[in-house]
Amino acid sequence: MKLEQKFKSIGFRWVINIFLPVLIIVAVVTVAVSIIYSSLCVERVRALCEDYTNDFSFLESATPETFENMAFDLIENYQYKSKLEVQILDSEGRPVASTTAFSDTDADIPDYKTAISTNKNTAVFRGENSSGEKILACTNLVFDINGNRIGAYRWITSMEKANTQITQVVLLVIGMGMLVIIFSAVSGAFFIKSILRPIKDAGNTARKIALGDFQSRIEIKNHDEIGELCNSINYMATELRQAETMKNDFISSVSHELRTPLTAIRGWGETAKMSVGTDEELVNRGLEVVLSEAERLGNLVEELLDFSRMQSGRLTVNTRPINLSELLSLTADMYTELARQQGIELSYARPLETATVMGDPDRLKQVFVNVIDNAVKYTEKGGLVLITQSIEEACVRILVKDTGVGIPAQDIDKVKEKFFKSNKTIRGSGIGLAVADEIIKQHQGLLFLESTEGVGTTVTIVLPLYEEEAVIEEETVLLEELTQVTELPEEETLDTTTDTEENS
């Protein structure tokens, strides 16, 4: 498994996909340059030697009788004896004259044999002489006017200096290739290290976050793509930490919300049970508390179910034309007595103009209950909750304004998020407003908040009015169009009747 991971690692893929091709390219270029330069040097030496022995081409005008004399004259007057050796060969390939001593008189002459065997006038040999010296030799055959070979002249030059220069250049090319390979390896290793280290740190931190350590953070050293990735992981950890905190607060809040009515139900249930037949008033009071707390539990469970439906996209509304003013009035009346008991004034003046909307009365009532309940909960004794309704531009606008504790500025954009509670000392699950906002959206409406800490909060709900007259008018126009299509003109009817009579 570790070997497989190693073969799939970024470092291994870099070696295979980048470093190895660079290595092959450098090696091929080095060999090619070395071969090309060596060939160019040999060709240059040959060209110079051909120029130096150009005078010996006059032997081609000689006859078998004058060949040796002319060769001796050319050897005697040759001016480049210090640069290369020139040999004169007879028709059998034996040296008869030379610009130097006949050190290789009995030696094998491969270039002469090659020239004869290949039926070419010239042949080149590159190798070593009998003393082991690196040489370059070339034999040029000489023919008379009848095409008979009468001899040859051969030049020989040392390749020691040329080979030394070729070796130096080849070593230089190899050195440059090695520098390219070393630079590629070092820069690649540094680059891979600069990638792998933050990726490993990001992986280790992500594993810690996955295990629940939301305090872990990645140190961002470079503001590149990897830095953006690390920054995203840090942001994810922050969001997860906040979500975990909200989840824990939610669980704690819901547990408290469930425990309180359950405790009341259990306590008053036992009290009522013990008082049966002895104190009917206490029994009735206990049953009222039990029923009230059971309803409270039911509302909380229903709120949780609505939240679950909202998360899964199954929260639906069954719309029909409803009187929104009456629905709002009934909801406000539900909280009038509760507000009075808490020393809060709840004011709602039902408008003269009725607002009709296309909506789900149960869902909209759930929204009003949530908003008004929050306003009463967060308003202290002696405060005011004001509910108003107005119609503006084919929309109904409902305002629920309180003089409560308000919402801090940094929390105003989060209050409609799930599990979020700005004030954790007040009862509530933290999901009611999120569900309310989703319900209003499904009614093609808007729900937004304005709040100042210590001053109060205003919740505004905007819903489109139900245009009943427009719908009726549209249906009437459609009906008239259908009638015009089906009815025939009077003249056309008469013509049809006449035609029928004539046919009869």
Textual characterization of the structure:
The protein has 504 residues and is of the alpha+beta class. It has twelve helices and twelve strands. The chain has helices at 2-7, 10-52, 67-76, 110-117, 160-210, 225-275, 280-312, 324-341, 361-377, 432-442, 468-486, 490-503; strands spanning 85-89, 95-98, 122-128, 134-143, 149-158, 320-323, 345-348, 356-359, 384-392, 395-402, 446-452, 456-464. The strands form three sheets. The chain has a five-stranded antiparallel β-sheet, with helices on both faces. A five-stranded mixed β-sheet has the order 7-9-10-12-11. The protein has a two-stranded antiparallel ribbon with strand order 6-8. A hairpin with a 5-residue loop joins strand 3 and strand 4 (134-143). The two termini are 100 Å apart. 22% of the residues are buried. Mean pLDDT is 81; it is low at 1-7 and 485-504.
In brief, what are we looking at here?
The protein has 504 residues and is of the alpha+beta class. It has helices at residues 2-7, 10-52, 67-76, 110-117, 160-210, 225-275, 280-312, 324-341, 361-377, 432-442, 468-486, 490-503, and strands at 85-89, 95-98, 122-128, 134-143, 149-158, 320-323, 345-348, 356-359, 384-392, 395-402, 446-452, 456-464.
